[in-house]
Amino acid sequence: MGIHEDVKDYYGRRVQKTEDLVLNMCVTPAQPLPKYIRDVLNVVHEEVSSKYYGCGLVIPECLENCWILDLGSGSGRDCYMLSKLVGEQGHVTGIDMTQEQIQVAQKFIEYHTQLFGFSKPNVEFLQGYIEKLSDAGLKDNSFDIIISNCVINLSPDKKAVLKEAYRVLKDGGEMYFSDVYADCILPEAIRTHKVLWGECLGGALWWKDLFRIAEEVGFSAPRLATAKRIPVTNAELKKVVGDFQFVSATYRLFKIPASCPKDKCCVTYNGSIRGFKEKLKFDVNYTFNEGEAVTVDGEMAAILQGSRFARAFSIKPAGKVAPCSGEDPSTKSKVKADETYRGALGLCPH
Ligand SMILES: C[S@@+](CC[C@H](N)C(=O)[O-])C[C@H]1O[C@@H](n2cnc3c(N)ncnc32)[C@H](O)[C@@H]1O
What pTM does this model have? Predict the structure, then answer.
C-alpha cells in the first residue's frame, strides 16, 4: 500500500480514539488555553473530541467573519471550535482523505449549528487530498486562514501541500498550523517505519526544510508561535528512533500581497482583538502591548499591513514617529527565538 492508504488505514481503522495512539502528544498543549478557547472546546460533542489526534492549538487571533480551511480535519474538533469563533457570517471547510473521519465530522453538523444558535450551518467537510485541493473544488484566493493540526507530516509530498495552501489563500491570508518537526533529515529506517509514520514522527520534516519550502512556494518566513518537545516514551519505538529529537511546533506563514512594501515601520496595537485587549503575543519574537509604539522589521510590517491584523494597528514609516521605542524587539529577541526552539528540541547546532 502507498503512504496515503497506510495513513487512511491508521486513522480509519487502527486508531479509534485519542488514547489508542502509541505516543501521547495530543494530550498537553504547549501553553495554557485562554478562557474563551476553553469555553468553546468544552462544548464540542464528546464523540468528535474523543477522536482528536492533533498536536497543538490551531486557533489564531482575530477570527470574526473569516473563511477558514482545515487541512486534515479528522473528526472535526478544530473545525467546530472555529465555527463558533468565526460566527455565523464566517465559514469553515474541513478536508480529510479518510472516510471514517469525515463521516464522524459530518454527523455532528446539525448538533453544533443548533448549539451555537446559527440559522444555518457555517461548516462543511469534504473528502479529499490536501496535496490536490483543486480536485475537491477549492478555488484560488478563497480563504482568509488555513489551519492544520498534525497532518502535513503524514503527507508524502509536503511541498505540494504548501503550494496548494498558497494558491487557495487570499492575498494577506495566513497559514497557522501545528506539526511535528525533527532536528535532522530522518534516515530511511525511521521514514519507512509504518507505526512511526502513523504516529506522526516518521514523516516529520527537518525544521530547516520547512523554511526552505515555505520560501520556494512564496510564503513569508515561518514565524514560530509555540514549540514543545515530544518525548518518545514507548520502548519499542525508542529503539528505532534512537537519539533523533522531535518537537511539536506551531508556525504562522503569510501570503503577503505584492503591493505591500517591506519597509521597517513603527506600529502601535490598538487593543481591539477579542481576548487580547492588553497584549497580543504574535510569535516568539513579537509581543505587542496595547498603545505602545514599537519598530518592526520590513516583513513584519508587510504582514501587519497586508493581513486581517491591519485594522488592529496604526502603522507608520519608522523614523517619522515619536515616541517609538526605536529598537526592533526582534533584533533583541531573535536569539531568544532560537533558544526557544533549541530548548524545545534539545538540538545540537546544525
Ligand atoms: C493525526 S490526524 C489529525 C486529525 C485532526 N487534525 C485532529 O486534530 O484531530 C491526521 C489526519 O490527517 C488526515 N490526512 C493525512 N494525510 C492526508 C492527506 N494527504 N490528505 C488528506 N487528509 C490527510 C488523516 O486522514 C487524519 O484524519
Answer: 0.94
